[in-house]
Amino acid sequence: MKSIRRTFIKGLIAIIPLIFTLYLLFWFAGTLEMALGYIFKFIFPDSWYIRGFGVALAIPLVFFFGCFLESRSFRKVFNTFETQVIQIPFIKSIYTTMRDFTSLFSHENKGKFKQVVLVNAPPGNSQQIGFITVSDFEDTSHTFITDDQIAVYIPFSYQVGGQTVIISREHVIGIDMSVEDALRFIATAGIAGSANNT
Predict the structure, then answer these.
(1) Can you name the residues that pair with 167 across neighbouring β-strands?
(2) Do residues 133 and 113 lie in contact, with contact meaning Cβ atoms separated by under 8 Å?
(3) 79 and 113, same domain (yes or no)
(4) Does residue 75 lie within any of the structural domains?
(5) In what order do the strands lie in the sheet with 162-168?
(6) Does the CA dihedral 31-66-74-94 come out positive or negative?
(7) What is the helix (H) or strand (E) element at residue 82, kind and residue range?
(8) Which site in 10, 37, 39, 84 is 20 to 30 Å from 134, CA atoms measured?
(9) Which residues of the chain have pLDDT under 70?
(10) Is the domain of 65 the same as that of 20?
(11) Which residues cross the membrane (predicted)?
(12) Spatial distance between the Cα atoms of 91 and 181, rounded to a whole number of angstroms
């Protein structure tokens, strides 16, 4: 009986992430199809529409939007629009949370994570994994930061968010770990190992 239960649990543990991932993918595709399908029908006759055109439209739309963001003038317009959006109380919380979360996986922000470190968290001997984001404050006007301090971002496990701490260099230890492995380790509370071990 124990063997059957162990086998069932093993299968359950393996299949839940798969089902959840597929569910999110289908939900995202369905949302894109519903939203962009209306745009397709608005531009072209209804008889031209075939289910799936909404998702197909999303690919060039995202690509061209990325191209537009390369333009300084369009980027300025987008930043102005974004500034207006984050002034709306409820929308601000949702938008900024999603923006900050997705930006963690961009190559630009990974470049801003200068080093994966262990941060000594008093009291006691506990340590937290974080990322050095600013190692030199010489060009800033923050008078409360001393020369021997750095900025370290510490993400939270199993949720969106984190905290930025200004801490003395002596309380930070650099470790030989990639940003991707560190993000995976933190996001799963240490359960997931490196990409090579999973």
Answers:
(1) 150
(2) yes
(3) no
(4) yes
(5) 162-168, 149-155, 127-134, 115-120, 172-174
(6) positive
(7) helix 72-85
(8) 84
(9) 97, 100-114, 122-125, 137-144, 158-161, 192-198
(10) yes
(11) 7-28, 48-69
(12) 32
Distance CA 84, CA 92 (A): 9
99 within domain boundaries: no
> Tell me, what CATH number does 149's domain have?
2.30.30
Q: Does residue 95 lie in a domain region?
A: no
Task: For residue 197, give Cα distances in angstroms to 181, 184, 194.
Answer: 10, 12, 5
Cα 154 from Cα 164, distance rounded (Å): 6
Rg of the Cα atoms in the chain: 22
What sections of 49-157 are H helices per DSSP?
Answer: 53-69, 72-85, 89-103, 107-112
Residue 198: per-residue pLDDT: 44
pLDDT, position 70: 82
Residues 6 or more apart whose CB falls under 8 angstroms from that of 48 comprise 40
At residue 108, the pLDDT reads 57
DSSP state of 192: S
Tell me how far the alpha carbon of residue 49 is from its chain's centroid: 34
Residue 66 is part of which domain span? 2-85
Same domain, yes or no: 81 and 141: no
| Residue 57, number of CB atoms within 10 A of its CB | 18
Neighbours of 154 (CB within 10 A): 17
Residue 138 in tokens: 């010489």
- What CA–CA distance (Å, rounded) separates 191 from 197? 11
